[in-house]
Amino acid sequence: MNKPSIVVLGAGYGGMVTTVKLQKSLGINEADITLVNKHDYHYQTTWLHENAAGTLHHDRTRIAINDVIKLNKVNFVKDTVISINPKENKVRLKNGELSYDYLVIGLGFEAATFGIPGLDEHAFTIGSINRARLIREHIEYNFAMYNNENEPNDARLTIVVGGGGFTGIEFVGELANRVPELCKEYDIDKHKVRIINVEGAPTVLPGFDPDLVEYAMNSLEARGVEFKTGALLKECKADRIIIEKDGKPEEIPTMTTVWAAGVRANSIVEASGFETNRGKIQVREDMRAPDYDNVFVVGDCALVMNEESGRPFPPTAQIAIQMAETVAHNVKSLAAGSGEVERFEPKILGTVASLGHDDAIGVVLNNRKVFGFMATVMKKVIDNRYLLKLGGPGLLVKKGKFNIFY
Amino acid sequence: MNKPSIVVLGAGYGGMVTTVKLQKSLGINEADITLVNKHDYHYQTTWLHENAAGTLHHDRTRIAINDVIKLNKVNFVKDTVISINPKENKVRLKNGELSYDYLVIGLGFEAATFGIPGLDEHAFTIGSINRARLIREHIEYNFAMYNNENEPNDARLTIVVGGGGFTGIEFVGELANRVPELCKEYDIDKHKVRIINVEGAPTVLPGFDPDLVEYAMNSLEARGVEFKTGALLKECKADRIIIEKDGKPEEIPTMTTVWAAGVRANSIVEASGFETNRGKIQVREDMRAPDYDNVFVVGDCALVMNEESGRPFPPTAQIAIQMAETVAHNVKSLAAGSGEVERFEPKILGTVASLGHDDAIGVVLNNRKVFGFMATVMKKVIDNRYLLKLGGPGLLVKKGKFNIFY
């Protein structure tokens, strides 16, 4: 008997949940399941800004793949995907090649810098464990350098965050909490430190409820964050950025620019010849790619339109996890022979943005607004629920966030 | 009644012990005592290599001056000394000027780079809390960067230490202990890391007992340290060094060069017109400068010849502390009017060099050799004894090293 082979590319939210579900629903005699990932760990992308700020160690954010995947049920291949050849049902890896009967593409996002000069060379992005801890070290290095120069350079103490969306706002919130610790560690007057958020739209968190946006800005400004809204980042250099606000250029000396204003789907998708919309694969109702009945897409590489708003659903962890449940169900059906597939129906349960460990804002079921302490608790409950889903109580105990009162 | 004013410059081992002794022996009606120091803390220079390696936090190494000095008995001036005018009994500070009746110069050392090209620009020195924590951050930053570049650059994982004397050897010992932690933190294969010690003499720790030197080299080599003895550091660049061994040049790619092969007295001493020998003031028997009866010198700025060897006593903490006791006694005698001065007679009680937290070598009373566990305990006892002398049991409990079994 020829078992179908299922290959899952990427161990982000989408790929990981898909694999865990398949591991549970398919017996080892029913299918060969292979998971391919660059690292031997999964990480919670939504926690990386905390690692980057230095408020949470990255080992709390990452999860060893073999803590969740049973290696006697799933083959794990630690390798980098180079390209996909959907016509021949093959995937080329850096160190080999894989064939598949069913493919799940969960290759995630990459930073989009829109051709803004200097961003690729001089700005950091919060896209992986490696990147996040580099940002942490870069900030610490500049603080350590400050008292070692004859002419203290205030640009070492200025951190610019491009983008007032979710990631940018959550990151400045963590930075605001981190700065007093950094100042103590390196004997620096905290009034010399600047955290500047630059956002092109007239307000940060565009699309969020205005009352909550105001609450967030007040909370962050009280902790020293400066906002430059309606301002475009025009150029990034090693020691400064140039922004444009009200038609006028402004230069801000800084050694640390973090770009959190744009992501796009992994460019492998487009380069592999899939039909794309905004760089993503606009999937069918059952999460399959338009032209291939055996290729599913999950997470940030998949585009699903929200009929109500006429815009795509945002690339969030929540959506990726829900997609993964549909994908796992459908792959299992096809691989095990029933052939019945279900359609993906996202349910937005709510959105909570943290503003540091001690404050948050959110909108939950039925558009109820929450903020402050209750919102921080909800944020942690959401994070913990994911861990429970992914790896059961053991993983929850190991990696969960229970420190609601600190 | 006109109280004499005593000014102590520098809160290193010499200046600090002098001030503490004077504070005890002179009543507030007998003299005005002023201590001038750049920082509001004293630090144990002999522990800085641990801060630089990242094996001990710098807050363990530094001691707030007002933890030891009673501010109702001693005026503390946080300022930087610019120059001394001994003819007019004045000291110029960055933010003011002081007059004195008696002066104690304890301005310590600075790095001597002997004109080797690139050392001033590209090498680090372990000379202060600020420098030490910058080295720690520089190493961490390079480890963090390693997995973020398309072409991993092994020079980021190579640390070159120039000088196989006391500081250089103690530093590589700490680094050898630190590397496994760094590799775990940044997901790096520890076989890629190199720690290289470069020493011009045919052996490291020149002057030390050959058996102990062999023991030290074996201990360090077993933990991955490479030695280049009989090798001269010819040039330092941002991304490599050039050494010369057996007449042949050799290039070592490295992003981190730490220069621990030369110190000289603070150059303010020479610039202020004192008669100097090797940059230091060759003091009289009672620790006074040759030409000025009211100027004492203590620590690394003072040169005292060892009649037996015909060479100067080495600039160690042990000698500085002993000098300070003589200086404090003599200043007190002159200020309080008795006029009796004693001569400085150094007693070398022993010398212990650590090789990381778990190994050490030393020579103690009567030239007895010690190594291994017993030597590490002795090292800690010596350090603790100093704390007890400086600040009593309270300071010992706060900053002492009691972790002999880890």
TrEMBL record, chains A, B:
Keyword Flavoprotein listed? The answer is: yes
For molecular function, the Gene Ontology terms on record are: NAD(P)H dehydrogenase (quinone) activity
Any single Pfam family the record assigns to this protein: Pyr_redox_2
Instruction: Spell out the InterPro entries in the cross-references.
Output: FAD/NAD-bd_sf, FAD/NAD-binding_dom, NADH-Q_oxidoreductase
Q: Which cofactor does it need?
A: FAD
Record-stated family = Belongs to the NADH dehydrogenase family.
Any idea what this protein is called?
FAD-dependent oxidoreductase
Lineage of this protein's species?
Bacteria, Bacillati, Bacillota, Bacilli, Bacillales
